[in-house]
User: Which sequence fits this backbone?
């Protein structure tokens, strides 16, 4: 089963550009984290680990057993990687789409405090404001995560820079992306030409192909 984890902000509807084609060949599970869409946030997650554990319970409670191929965009990629580290025996593969890195927010705080403040503020609104606390504590939390499993891994990195990105920031972002690609001996790192951060919207065919390739590898 393919499990889709959104980035910070978009609801599960954001996957429309790839959902139908991926679901034509395999089961696909998309959901809203607490505070997203109509999802309740009365008991907000306290950590990335908590988000992974809640997703695991939701999959089991809704009758979706492993193995899972996890697909995560931006902050959702980080959550997907935590899930894989937490439940390595239940994960058959991972696709990271321009994924956030646990050290990214500390880097921005030190090097680009204004941008860091904007990012944290954007995560501090509405029913999903718990993510602001999670993002600020990621680097410390990451010290307690287990190893990443040796499963098929595709890391998709956008070729185009974002509006606020400097050369130094871009260089560091690529360091983070290469660190992701080094997590598994079965990894493939793809730079997606002509794409910004939302690769699955700019180049949906690339994301669909990556997911299908990982699913095929998992079946073999």
Assistant:
């Amino acid at each position: 089963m393919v499990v889709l984890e959104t980035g910070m902000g978009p609801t599960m509807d954001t996957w429309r550009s790839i959902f139908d084609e991926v679901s034509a060949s395999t089961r696909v599970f998309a959901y809203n984290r607490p505070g997203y869409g109509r999802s309740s946030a009365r008991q907000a997650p306290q950590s990335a680990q908590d988000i992974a554990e809640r997703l695991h319970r939701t999959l089991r409670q809704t009758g979706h057993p492993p193995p899972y191929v996890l697909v995560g965009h931006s902050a959702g990629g980080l959550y997907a990687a935590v899930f894989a580290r937490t439940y390595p025996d239940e994960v058959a593969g991972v696709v990271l789409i321009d994924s956030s890195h646990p050290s990214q927010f500390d880097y921005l705080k030190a090097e680009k405090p204004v941008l860091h403040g904007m990012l944290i503020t954007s995560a501090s609104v509405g029913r999903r404001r718990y993510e602001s606390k999670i993002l600020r504590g990621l680097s410390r939390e990451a010290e307690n995560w287990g190893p990443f499993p040796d499963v098929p891994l595709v890391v998709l990195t956008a070729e185009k820079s974002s509006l606020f990105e400097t050369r130094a920031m871009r260089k560091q972002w690529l360091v983070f992306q290469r660190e992701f690609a080094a997590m598994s001996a079965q990894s493939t790192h793809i730079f997606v030409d002509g794409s910004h951060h939302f690769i699955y919207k700019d180049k949906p065919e690339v994301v669909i192909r990556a997911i299908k390739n990982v699913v095929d590898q998992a079946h073999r």
Summary: The two ends are 15 Å apart (CA to CA). The mean pLDDT is 93.
